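In response to reviewer comment 3 from the previous cycle, which asked for concrete evidence that the modeling workflow produces usable outputs, we include below a single protein chain processed end to end. The sequence was submitted unchanged, and the resulting structure tokens are shown without manual editing.
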Amino acid sequence: MRGILWKAVLTALVIVLSLWFIYPTFRLVLMSPEQKENNPQLADELQEKGVKLGLDLQGGTHLVFEVDTTKLPPDMADIPIEEALEVIRSRVDQFGVAEPIIQRVGDMRIVVELPGIQDIESAKQLIKETAILEFRLMRERKDVIRFVEHMDKLLTEHPEILELAEKGLTEMPDSVEKPGTDEHPSPADRTAHTTDTSDIPVKTMADIMTHDSTQTPDDSASITSTPEKPKEPTSAPESVLTGASIFGRDTSDTGEVPMPIATGPAPFSDMVEIESNSIFVRASFVEIVERLIDFPEVKKLLSGSILLWDSHFDNFQSLRVKQLYLLKDKIELTGDHLVDTKWRFGSGGDPRTAGRPVVDLEFDSEGSRIFSKVTGANLKKRLAIVLNERVYTAPTIQNKIRNGKAIIQGIRELDEAKIITIVLKAGSLPVPLNIVEERTVGPTLGEDSIRSGVTAAIIGLLIVMIFMLVYYKFAGVVADIALLLNLLILMAAMAIVHATLTLPGIAGIILTIGMAVDANVLIYERIREEKRAGRTIRMAVEAGYSRAILTIIDANITTLIAAIVLYYFGTGPIRGFAVTLSLGLVISMYTSIIVTRMIFDWYISAFHKEDLSI
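The workflow returned the following structure tokens.
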């Protein structure tokens, strides 16, 4: 009886601990959608402590990335796939995705599964986004005007460039005369693409938007406050336009096919408006201007300068515009000197950032020295903060900043602020990646999968239990008790090790049900053989367990090896199957051998049984 006692105490302790660890999962399952919505904190705590659901059960995004070898340096001997894996893992972990799966497959691919994330574009941006942070000085207004005038001259003398841009091209074919040749169409020979604007009221930039370069004198924030606090102008701003303003010419503002461009003496000016030293482009013409600035002939005009777009479109009095910045090509400071970055909401002390997401930057000593030198030498000039070739803000430098701190403002969404913070913290990807497979599973499909899987598991469990009960009678009851205990411990073990339950994982649980009773079948058949040989029930039980145990261990070990191989070489769902199968096999060894033997020994000793219904 002493041997039975310690087994009983151990089993009771296992049952209590299992119930403790499985309670959060049961509690979460029993909560109604209304209860989860009314008490989200409790739901999150239960989800954190309970069994995690994989992408195929709760929905999410599945992505497969492959190294783009065409963009690798020719002298790169080893592809740093492991470094890329760590950068991706760091980004995903900081973003707060629950139970992500990030795994290397071969030497060229990385599989990423993000449960709970339905927005596949956000997921791709999070992972593929580079982390190139630059500080560049803006060109002065006179430089901007000069560039626009040169553009007008180029497009007037070579209208074919504008015509090609309208067709979606960014390079002149060989059949078209290049600028600089002796022969090209004169303005008089150009076919005009005009539209009647006589009945359309002309608006200037002063009518639709305001702009001011004043900044707060705060030493840490003056360089990075939101772009220029608006104010009402007293008169129309100076303009380089020689014809009608495009803001009066195009009234559709749909962002679709733009209206024909007027071919007056200032073709580029007709598409843009200058305010301060910023170039504003109507949304309808953004695509054309993007193509124009990619022409080699246009790039020749940018001596010592570059053109970069604002990170977002802006809406002013129902007009959608986007800023185009003329910046110096010299990079004053980069993100290589960053030591810390974090997102937050702007304080109420500054109405321009109050309640809006911002990203704080802090540089090391060398970066602080450079930042102090740049700000001190360029007072009252605008310094653009550029992230991945997009301008987020371009405030005016009010004072020399010595503390090495800056702020990225002009961020529209909290998720965008989070992604900016993450990519700056995690650094850039060491190799370029292309997406070769993407798949999104909706939450409704996940619920259907859970329902189908649980139904299949319950049906399988009932069939197996009824079979064991009918075929082995009392011994079948013992086997059924061990089987239920096996499932309880299995779910608790998954919660303890934070394993992720997937649809193939449910299949692994169903397989475990059969594997668990398989051990009891072997034992019971051995006991039957011993009884037919004339042994007492006590001796038959002891011999049945001792002779069957080696066969059970051999069978389980071979299956366990296969499960380990599946886990090591498989991806998300396959790993889920391997996890549940492995845990189920190990637990079934305990329930099928130790627990059932304990029940038989107790039953025979307590009731002095001379026979056993088996």
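The domain at 133-426 is CATH 3.30.1360.200 (Gyrase A; domain 2). We consider this sufficient to address the reviewer's concern, and the full set will be provided in the supplementary archive.
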